[in-house]
Structure formats: structure tokens, C-alpha cells
Amino acid sequence: MIRNLTILVLAVTVIGCASSRNRPVALYQTDVISMTKAGATDEEIMRRIDETRTVFNLSADDVVLLRKEGVSGRVVTYMLETVTRAAVADERRRNYYDSRWNFGIGYGHWHRW
Question: CA distances (Å), 110 to each of 96, 102, 113, in order?
Fold first, then answer.
């Protein structure tokens, strides 16, 4: 029994470590500033924001700082919109799973009819 439990814990740990390596690392405002100063285009920066699925919750002071550091208005607007895009994506996911649940595509006693 202890051997089986040890194997299970080891397997979960290995799988967890393997899957976490594939996750993109979120960006910080300083990363966007660095990319801007390195000469990255707006499209490259916005693509990187999308790839990392970064959600920026910017204050007015953050916006002023970004603009002062040379980040384009287009990129700042894109960063501001990440909150809305994340909320919409989350709502779509919830609606998808709710619609599957409500149409009886469940198993056992868990489905709602």
C-alpha cells in the first residue's frame, strides 16, 4: 500500500512538473518597456502578450509611466483591454460547459434534466 502511494505521489509530481514547464511566463510592465526600448514592433509586443496570456490591470499611474517610457498608445490600449478579453474568454468557457451540462451530456446522477 505504501509503495503504491509512493508511486502515485511520484507520478503526480513528475506530471505536474512536466506540464508547468510548458506554461508561458506572464509578462510584467517592465518587460513591455524593455521590449519597446529594444525596438520590438507593436505587433511583436501584442503577440507576446497573447502568447503568455498576460492580463494587465493598469492604473492611471501605470499608463502614464508606460507612455513616459516610450510604449505606444496602441500597445497601452491593448494592455488595458487584456482584462476585458480575459473576462470574455472566461465567460465563453463557462457558457460552453454550462450548455453541455444543461443539455444532459453528463454522466450518472450528476446530469441535470
Answer: 17, 11, 10
- For residues 84-102, one letter each, b for 16 or more C-beta atoms within 10 angstroms of the residue's C-beta and e for the rest, the string is eeeeeeeeeeeeeeeeeee
DSSP type of residue 27: P
- Give me the residue spans of the domains in the chain: 23-100
Nearest Cα neighbor of 32 from 20, 47, 15, 19 is 47
Q: How far apart are CA 27 and CA 107, in angstroms?
A: 40
Whole-prediction pTM value?
0.65
pLDDT tens for each residue of 60-113: 999 999 999 999 999 999 999 999 998 888 888 887 766 665 555 555 555 554
